[in-house]
């Protein structure tokens, strides 16, 4: 069964900027041996927001570039060291060449003496998370349950976990940078 792509676009009819919050799920830490399983992109312009989740074989260079079309500011957590190099290695796209600015929120956290992974920083700042039991390792397990056992509930949980990551990146950005 081929994974579906969840896709929305914000149409840009004016000069307002589009912010994107990006997070990937992978089958491991090494882009040489691992694949991107889910790419979440949370697009925000003013009060408008839309979530794009590319899944499995639908994570193509063309789909990624179409998803970030019009984005001026990209926000990640540890994206400078993980997400963006992983995307470049696996898909051949340097996302920074398609946007005005990339902000790695982990660096901003360090400047505010907030250390650790995204979930730890969320806990320190009181940012809520519904799927507290899911972490990177569980995300890998969910993917393989979906692939090997055709477990749709595993895919849904993985997508919900990724959604929480990207939506919480916006909350984190607002707490740190405003």
Can you walk me through this structure?
With 178 residues, the chain is of the alpha/beta class. The chain has a single domain (18-173), classed as Nucleotidyltransferase, domain 5. Helices cover 40% and strands 21% of the residues. It contains six helices and five strands; from the N terminus they run E-E-E-H-E-H-E-H-H-H-H. Strand 4 (71-76), helix 2 and strand 5 form a beta-alpha-beta unit.
Order of helices and strands: EEEHEHEHHHH
**Overall mean pLDDT:** 91
CATH level-4 homologous superfamily: Ribonuclease H-like superfamily/Ribonuclease H
Total domain count = 1
Estimated helix fraction:
25-40%
Which residues sit in consecutive blocks of at least 5 with pLDDT less than 50?
1-14
- The count of helical stretches stands at 6
How many β strands by DSSP?
5
Shape: globular
- Any idea what the radius of gyration is? 16 Å
Strand order of the largest sheet: 3-2-1-4-5
In the CATH scheme, what's the topology name? Nucleotidyltransferase, domain 5
Category from helices, strands and their pairing: alpha/beta
- Beta-strand content bin: 15-25%
Q: State the end-to-end distance.
A: 44 Å
CATH architecture: 2-Layer Sandwich
The CATH class is: Alpha Beta
Largest sheet: 5 strands, mixed
Short synopsis of the structure:
By secondary structure, the protein is of the alpha/beta class. It has helices at about 60-65, 85-90, 105-110, 120-125, 135-150, 150-175, and strands spanning about 20-25, 35-45, 50-55, 70-75, 100-105. About 40% of the residues lie in helices and about 20% in strands.
């Amino acid at each position: 069964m081929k994974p579906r792509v969840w896709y929305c676009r914000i149409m840009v009819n004016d000069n307002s900027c589009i912010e994107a919050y990006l997070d990937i799920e992978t089958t491991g830490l090494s882009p040489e041996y691992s694949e991107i399983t889910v790419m979440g992109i949370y697009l925000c312009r003013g009060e408008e927001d839309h979530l794009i989740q590319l899944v499995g074989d639908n994570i193509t260079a063309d789909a990624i570039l179409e998803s970030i079309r019009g984005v001026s500011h990209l926000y990640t957590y540890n994206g400078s060291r993980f997400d963006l190099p992983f995307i470049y290695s696996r898909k051949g796209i340097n996302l920074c060449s398609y946007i005005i600015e990339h902000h790695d929120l982990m660096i901003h956290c360090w400047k505010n003496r907030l250390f650790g992974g995204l979930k730890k920083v969320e806990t320190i700042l009181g940012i809520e998370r519904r799927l507290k039991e899911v972490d990177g390792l569980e995300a890998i397990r969910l993917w393989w349950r979906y692939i090997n056992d055709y477990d749709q509930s595993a895919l849904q949980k993985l997508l919900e976990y990724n959604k929480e990551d990207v939506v919480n990146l916006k909350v984190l950005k607002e707490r740190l940078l405003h």
